[in-house]
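Hi W., the magnesium ion complex you wanted:
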Amino acid sequence: MYISLKNLQKHLNKIVTLRGWIYNFRSSGSIMFLQLRDGTGFIQAILNKSDIDEKKWIEAQKISLETSLELTGKLTMHPKNKNEFEVQIKNFKIYQIPKDDYPISKKEHGPEFLLDNRHLWLRSRRQWAIQRIRDTLIRATYEWMHNNNFTKIDSPILTPSACEGTTTLFGVKYFDLGKAYLSQSGQLYLEAAIASWGKVYDFGPVFRAEKSKTRRHLTEFWMMDAEMAFIEHEENLKIQENLISFMIKKVLVENQEELKILERDPEPLKKIKPPFYRITHQEAIKKLQKLGSKTRETEDLGGEDETIITKQYDKPLFVEKYPAQVKSFYMKRNPKNPSLVLCADLLAPEGYGEIIGGSQREDNYDELIKRIKENNLPLENFKWYLDLRRYGSIPHSGFGFGLERIVAWLCGLTHVRETIPFPRLINRLNP
Ligand code: 4AD
Ligand code: MG
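Structure:
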């Protein structure tokens, strides 16, 4: 019977059969040390010349990086490191010896080379650890949303119009109907869904044709949009901080090994508990100007601003109430100062920056028509959206998180390109 490297304890001192790939090896005379990975974990397998016959030993000399094989041997404890298992090989069967030398070696490779070989790079221990953490975050999201009475409503990807901004859409030809656009966020559709299910969310790929070549931007990324009936600005933020704290706690419990592989210090993450910090956009600009930024009160925060400001905090920071002109048409104006909107961006600490964008939505029919016109959006495309303000309109709010930004932060990565299996960047569509 094959066993997986995930649960070895009960097999200690027994003969086991493992299947996987050799990701590293060395030999010294009559002994070979093979590092095996099977998808669930990693182990050292030791092959002693005296334990197998001559023919097998000769065959073993052909083993190279990424050889796929099956091996049988006794599971023992590592003599020095008491938390590690080892296998003393008694027999093995090779599936394939690679046809050529494996292109990714232990030496340093540049990011472009690694991205060109992304299909192989995914096999590295670091990439394994990152996607495992991503998986935990996805599961934690579903769990928290379900436990808090959200219904998952899948929003469409092919859409007739923009949600966030017309300049950042990917267009595709759509039969006789003209042009369709790949969705930037399912938000507007979720606003329709709240009148049936109250609290809803979607979670899937979204597309942005922005020409941003930064460490925070992908052209295809995964967003979780949440939308809630009868929830106003303040409560919206509380929901976000509870969700994010829950997700981090899950990673801290389930991914200790992965964080270690990534050399990610878990200590700063242990501090992430509600309440998060809150400052207004105006306060943020004042603070940034003192720190040397040239951004003005009427402007959005730049990427560099986000880096600077979040280095000042040990927990995520909500920046609230931005000037209306830098935000989307659907955001509700602040009744106390209508030049501002009831929105907040959640910025992750340690220089990571924006992970969530959210707001209370404009629920007044006439106001919303005004905003659509001001933004030069085609009114006919928003007819259905306006209907939501004609029939039983209610105060409501929502937010969207970018999964890759959260993965980058938790894994301590400098660039989002490693957070998604096959990144799409403005200059990269392959593999
Ligand atoms: O702030 P954004 O644009 O908000 C919306 O799309 C809203 N409609 C969401 C909502 O209220 N339901 O995007 C949300 C998040 C950002 O905070 C960021 O984390 C991520 O999506 N994001 C990106 N991640 C990677 N690459 C990009 N190009 C991203 N653009 C946004
Ligand atoms: Mg945003």
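Residues 345, 354, 357 surround magnesium ion (ligand 2) (CB under 6 Å).

W.
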